[in-house]
Structure to design on (574 residues):
């Protein structure tokens, strides 16, 4: 592989796979809100 | 399933409580299973290579962020807020003055009906090729084997001559998919995805690692990732990027509306959507590496350049080029089994999601259970699928119907939903408020602009361009009468189906519903 092809492979890997890892970490750290709008006590939260 | 009446205050859909995913993970894996389909494996690598190689990643990522993720958010917001199948959700979104918006939901359902009947056939082909891999049954002439021996393809038309080698696996695919569908969301669709998605990832990763050690693999990757920056000045490359993102993410034809309607009311909506979107693109990159490493090996064996290879996308790549490569490869049968096994699993989970749109819509409208919908509606679709796609004209019919259903049907549905929701019914602020009220990743005016302006503009350009090509040049040299029947006729069927279904009576009143959070609560949150 040429240098430019390797560079673009790394860019793709960092942005796309990095985006996946970042979004998983973001979701894992805060899976849901602490406070919901009014009426939340009337809807199910077993998810 | 227990039945009971729910109060309108908190959302009645029918006489039974709405099913739910058992948790966040089940939903995310099912949504990824829907998005990751045949297109990820056989479309992305070739499209990327033909549209600038490494440079294609720039418009691709821009399309992901400016159109793919925003429309995914829109679908999730509609399904989650209005808690129903596509017709139910759009009808509720339209309110008293916009009950007719139900027809947009049915338009999406009929697109899914059309896609399901031919998509099942491709899954059946892949299943057959999975078994053919073990003895390399396709021989040396893979093109001849596929078209003449396996499919027994005849001239364009509608043949009544069935091909048993296609018919039998097609019936088996329908039996399997309807069995899963009839088991409901948590015990059926989710369970199937929990099994097949990890298996698909493992199988495909083994295939990619094997491909990387083949002679010529690095030449293949060099061809895929070397950027051609001049391509960035070509509008068609940008359209190709938006098309790839759009068709790959399962957006704008009811799937993501349906899937999110089965989420808990307090479920985080946007953050899981980001995971789904990036997981889908991550798989596409992996597929690109696996496919081009393998094509590099093939070019090396032939003593030609990658640019001289034919059949590097779609059906040709999977059922003609790949079998030829497998035949020349050490350990070919195992490699072929991994490839076609991956196609089957990716296709099966996507087919499930397409059919869930149909099942959910019929359950809502006629008050029937998942099992009843699977048996009654699913069986009817299976019969149509077998009649049209297990005959000697199946390949050509499939090719034509796919072209119109995707490039006209889905694009029209996407343009209509973005313009109607954002501009006609002005629901942008309410949906943005809903997403922010339940999600950890917030959206603002930029999201509404992307969904309301950029996305429909790009999609409208794509649609006009495609219609001009189809009208002036036809398609694949097929006769005009055939394109009128199988191509434009498909769009007519979708339209008539949507109007007819909208006109039928509901078993239970879909308007006896109040979204949560209330619009008043959303306004207060905004302050």
């Amino acid at each position: 592989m040429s240098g430019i092809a390797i560079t673009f492979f790394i860019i793709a890997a960092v942005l796309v796979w990095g985006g996946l890892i970042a979004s998983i970490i973001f979701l894992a750290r805060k899976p849901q809100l602490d406070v919901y709008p009014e009426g939340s006590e009337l809807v199910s939260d077993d998810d | 399933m227990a039945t009971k009446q729910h109060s309108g205050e908190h959302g009645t859909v029918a006489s039974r409580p709405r099913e739910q995913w058992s948790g966040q993970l089940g939903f995310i894996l099912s949504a990824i299973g829907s998005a990751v389909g045949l297109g990820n494996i056989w479309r992305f690598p070739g499209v990327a290579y033909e549209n600038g190689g490494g440079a294609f990643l720039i418009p691709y990522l821009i399309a992901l962020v400016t159109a793919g993720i925003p429309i995914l958010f829109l679908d999730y917001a509609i399904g989650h807020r209005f808690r129903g199948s596509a017709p139910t959700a759009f009808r509720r979104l339209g309110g008293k003055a916009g009950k007719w918006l139900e027809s947009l939901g049915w338009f999406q359902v009929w697109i899914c009906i059309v896609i399901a009947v031919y998509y099942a056939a491709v899954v059946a082909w892949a299943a057959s090729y999975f078994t053919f891999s073990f003895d390399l049954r396709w021989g040396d002439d893979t093109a001849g084997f596929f078209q003449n021996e396996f499919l027994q393809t005849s001239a364009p038309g509608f043949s009544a001559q069935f091909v048993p080698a296609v018919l039998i696996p097609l019936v088996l695919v329908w039996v399997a998919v309807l069995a899963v569908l009839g088991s409901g969301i948590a015990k059926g669709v989710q369970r199937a995805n929990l099994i097949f998605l990890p298996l698909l990832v493992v199988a495909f990763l083994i295939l990619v690692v094997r491909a990387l050690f083949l002679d010529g693999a690095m030449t293949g990757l060099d061809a895929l990732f070397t950027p051609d920056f001049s391509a960035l000045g070509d509008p068609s490359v940008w359209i190709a990027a938006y098309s790839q993102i759009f068709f790959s993410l399962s957006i704008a034809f009811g799937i993501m509306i349906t899937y999110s309607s089965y989420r808990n009311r307090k479920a985080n909506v946007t953050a899981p959507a980001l995971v789904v979107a990036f997981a889908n693109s991550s798989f596409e990159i992996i597929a690109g590496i696996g496919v081009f490493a393998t094509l590099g090996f093939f070019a090396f064996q032939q003593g030609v350049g990658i640019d001289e290879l034919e059949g590097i996308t779609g059906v040709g790549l999977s059922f003609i080029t790949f079998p030829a490569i497998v035949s020349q490869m050490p350990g070919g049968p195992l490699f072929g089994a991994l490839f076609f096994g991956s196609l089957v699993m990716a296709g099966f989970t996507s087919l499930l999601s397409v059919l869930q749109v149909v099942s959910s819509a019929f359950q809502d409208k006629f008050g029937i259970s998942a099992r009843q919908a699977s048996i009654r509606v699913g069986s009817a679709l299976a019969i149509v699928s077998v009649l049209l796609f297990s005959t000697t004209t199946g390949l050509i019919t499939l090719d034509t119907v796919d072209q119109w259903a995707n490039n006209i049907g889905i694009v029209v549905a996407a343009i209509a939903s973005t313009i109607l929701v954002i501009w006609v019914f002005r629901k942008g602020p309410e949906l943005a408020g809903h997403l922010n009220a339940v999600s950890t990743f917030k959206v603002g005016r930029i999201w509404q602009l992307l969904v309301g302006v950029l996305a429909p503009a790009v999609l409208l350009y794509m649609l006009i361009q495609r219609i001009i090509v189809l009208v002036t040049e036809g398609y694949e040299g097929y006769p005009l009468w055939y394109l009128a029947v199988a191509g434009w006729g498909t769009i007519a069927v979708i339209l008539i189906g949507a109007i007819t279904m909208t006109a039928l009576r509901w078993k239970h009143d879909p308007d006896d519903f109040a979204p949560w959070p209330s619009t008043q609560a959303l306004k207060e949150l905004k302050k």
About this structure: Residues 3-29 of chain A form the longest helix (27 residues). The radius of gyration of chain A is 19 Å.
